[in-house]
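Work Package 3 committed the consortium to producing structural models of liganded targets before the mid-term review. Because experimental data for this complex are still outstanding, the team generated a predictive model from sequence and the ligand definition alone, so that downstream docking and mutagenesis planning could proceed in parallel. The input record is reproduced below exactly as it was submitted to the modelling pipeline, together with the SMILES string for S-adenosylmethionine.
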Amino acid sequence: MDSQPFDAVYWTSRYHAGRDGWDVGTITEPLRAYFAQLGAPDQRRILIPGAGRAYEAEWLHRHGWPHVFVADIAPEALEALQARVPDFPAEHLLLADFFALQGPFDLIVEQTFFCALDPGQRPAYARQCAQLLRPGGKLVGLLFDGPVGPGNEPPFGGSREEYRAYFAPYFDFVHFDTAHNSIKPRAGRELFICLQRKAS
Ligand SMILES: C[S@@+](CC[C@H](N)C(=O)[O-])C[C@H]1O[C@@H](n2cnc3c(N)ncnc32)[C@H](O)[C@@H]1O
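The resulting structure, written out as tokens with the ligand in place, is given here.
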């Protein structure tokens, strides 16, 4: 993990310095709306990688979803969730590198994690999502559509064509279009994606 340019030391120092502009302090509307339409909680195993302070995990937990897992390499992020939601299962807080996780999961939730990785890791991200999901499982969330950030550190943007190339070998594209309910600063600048893991 620490051989990567943006490692645990890097992310921990961003949290300590308060350089955490990605953190909007609550679940974002696209994910809230997606979760809400799933209906009653079931036994699905849900992974939120690069979860940060994990407001999505809090929402799911408070709405009765029993198998929600969060993973992050920065302890601050997980500690913040634990402090806000003391009854969140401690064994579901994974202080771990996404690329070292093991499945299976039914749903992976993406929000400002893909853009936090070095772009050279994107093919490995798509492959690891596919490996972590059961066939038929879904990768759902948001990807920046176009350039973001200064270019020398996260967040890193990208294009639909680029993203399609990473995911097409493993996923069917159920939904892949501009989000209609983004938070204001991201309006028109992010894609809502729902990708279904191919059977083989
Ligand atoms: C830009 S933040 C986004 C946090 C959260 N998803 C949000 O939207 O508030 C990226 C997060 O990914 C974590 N991270 C970076 N690389 C990681 C890796 N390889 N495995 C797990 N977490 C990682 C960082 O520590 C950081 O909390």
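Reviewers should note the following from the model. The longest helix spans residues 122-132. These observations will guide the Year 2 experiments.
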